[in-house]
């Protein structure tokens, strides 16, 4: 098939859908055109930018009939920054779109007919991110800049404020640029590999109010250490920990291997529901704790624990879901591939006084079959895999061992649908799917499903 439109054509199109990048999708005789900034149910006049064999790109010249859900994006940097994709869609509109998206993916990719419930969203979908990783650099005029990267690039958009991060992150964004100039600390330049300060990472514990600031520097020694600590304490009065991480490599990976304490404690403490977590400079932790609680409560609800069950938590990370389940289960066994995360999980179990948890580092698809061979069985199996979904071998183990209930926490509806289909073909039936909005203004959507033996 050749493209029915060519570069520089102008035409009027109806927008049917959104891609995962937040671009509108229109079809011209079945040929998809991706249109930045256009929303579903809009009619727009567009200019074709590029055509490939199976799809093309266009830009909006005029929105002829706007979506009733279109709003003015509240953030000034929305069009340049790659952080949010959907600020031009009302929050209600976002939740509606996510619900439909999950339902369509379930039906189309998985032939799953279980009910998909309306998305659980946030009452206040702003300032929810508890972690900001801010790159520092200089502009062509030599001034200090800090902000976030442009979509799909390493160009920094200089900002003073980010509407989805906490106030502490804003204080660093707007204040530290000036302070650095005053104390003579040079930001790092990615191209020349010169300068000192590469990133500032701010982590906030929502439940306790504790704040950690991490300076990622090119070298361990820098003469402005005391002045930098004093500036941060002044800008962020509730800071409880200031750490330094050293990254001397020519890389765009944020952290290096060595982390040292500059001031205050080494960790901050947060809580999700009644479970407390210790967070260090580099530990993995969910970025929207308020919605994480909603997600985990849903998983706990679907696990339907009465107190006598043995539970396996596959892909357990630092044990967040495991500890949540341990409040209601007889025993929980968590498995995770990153050994450091398992160390965190064990420490957090101890911090909370749990004695009914067991954690092991390794690939879930190898460790869980071995557990079964050793007679460690489970009544309920919870999985929370990365975007690529569950390993095929793990799904086969589930189908062989047939735990009564499976709870699937997913960050990617497409792989969720694929895996639910495999489990349904093997004798399970999906009962219900609850999407949860963990990342307002992005196109991501988490979902929890539960299955029982048919
Ligand atoms: N349940 C955790 C983390 C989920 S993210 C939470 O809610 O916080 C998915 C996790 O799966 C990551 O921590 C990743 O390191 C881990 N992972 C990836 N592949 C794995 C595998 N094959 N076996 C076990 N864990 C794996």
TrEMBL record:
What EC numbers are recorded for this enzyme? 2.1.1.189
Q: Which UniProt keywords apply?
A: 4Fe-4S, Iron, Iron-sulfur, Metal-binding, Methyltransferase, S-adenosyl-L-methionine, Transferase
Which Gene Ontology molecular-function terms are recorded?
A: 4 iron, 4 sulfur cluster binding; rRNA (uridine-C5-)-methyltransferase activity
| Superkingdom assignment | Bacteria
SUPFAM superfamilies (alphabetical) = Nucleic acid-binding proteins, S-adenosyl-L-methionine-dependent methyltransferases
Instruction: Name the catalytic site residues.
Output: 411 (nucleophile), 411
**GO:BP terms for this protein?**
rRNA base methylation
CDD domains from the UniProt entry:
AdoMet_MTases
Q: List positions binding S-adenosyl-L-methionine.
A: 286, 315, 336, 384
**Residue ranges constituting the TRAM domain according to the UniProt record:** 4-62
The record's annotation in InterPro entries points to: MeTrfase_TrmA_AS, NA-bd_OB-fold, SAM-dependent_MTases_sf, TRAM_dom, U5_MeTrfase_fam
Its family remark reads: Belongs to the class I-like SAM-binding methyltransferase superfamily. RNA M5U methyltransferase family.
UniProt cross-references to PANTHER family, sorted A to Z: RNA M5U METHYLTRANSFERASE (PTHR11061), TRNA (URACIL(54)-C(5))-METHYLTRANSFERASE (PTHR11061:SF30)
- How is this protein named in the record? 23S rRNA (Uracil-C(5))-methyltransferase RlmCD
Organism, as annotated = Lysinibacillus sphaericus
Its gene name is rlmCD
